[in-house]
Amino acid sequence: MINRELDADLKTAMVTGASGVLGQATVRMFLEEGFRVVVHDASVEALNDFVSKLGSLATRENIYPICFDPTNQDSVSTACERIQRDFAPVYILVNNCGILSNTLSSETSLEDWHDLFAHNVDSTFLMCKELLPYMKERKWGRIINTCSLAGKTGGVTTGIGYAASKGAVHTMTFALARESAKDGVTVNGIAPAYIRTPTVELYPEEMVSMLLKYIPVGRFCEPEEFSHAVKFLVSPLAGFITGSILDLNGGLLVG
């Protein structure tokens, strides 16, 4: 019989890129569900601002803020050793770090291309490489990668570098899932499209109208809907789901 509740020592999650809209919603969900949470961001100011907004929801016992460069292997290794030593082993990893680009191929420099892959692909690879051994040793773990509709379609309004990098994250998710399944670790992705964020709300009115016309449910995704999908995938009852990309796009892409 499957255990419906996680053992207390497994309830340590890490969210990278936590100061973003999706990261904030996910961190809040974990804290409300009684998890210990490692909260990462590359910006000290953004990280401190977010943690202060959590108020009484965050305590010294249940939250561990840390700032490091997720695109640098030495930085990632040092940070993960510190987390393991000073807080707790991480058994749930949400790779939410990344940057967006809307530029076409003619406007994308090789430097821009490398920067997108560093933040969207390298960071995901390095975090998985560092934390997977702990999960495999315990024979349990959950990795959830923030993917994108752009990684499946080439993007509607996003640029070539972003779409290609997210496509790479999709394929990495499949490869890690096959590698880790025998060790009790599931690896899945969530591919959202058009989350209601301050950026989307600043789109020109005609663009918003166009997007809402083509999204069958007729609205943008709420950040809490993303965090609810994370909650489902980390559940013990989701242990038979691995190597999947969960679409969160309101019917914009089906099949």
UniProtKB/TrEMBL annotation:
Matches recorded under InterPro entries: NAD(P)-bd_dom_sf, Sc_DH/Rdtase_CS, SDR, SDR_fam
Gene3D superfamilies: NAD(P)-binding Rossmann-like Domain
Keyword Plastid: no
Keyword Oxidoreductase listed: yes
Matching PROSITE patterns: ADH_SHORT
The protein's Enzyme Commission number: 1.1.1.100
Segment forming the signal sequence: none
Annotated protein name in UniProt: 3-oxoacyl-[acyl-carrier-protein] reductase
Family: Belongs to the short-chain dehydrogenases/reductases (SDR) family.
Organism: Porphyridium purpureum
Keywords: Oxidoreductase
GO molecular function, one term: 3-oxoacyl-[acyl-carrier-protein] reductase (NADPH) activity
Catalytic activities: a (3R)-hydroxyacyl-[ACP] + NADP(+) = a 3-oxoacyl-[ACP] + NADPH + H(+)
Taxonomic classification: Eukaryota, Rhodophyta, Bangiophyceae, Porphyridiales, Porphyridiaceae
Biological process according to GO: monocarboxylic acid metabolic process
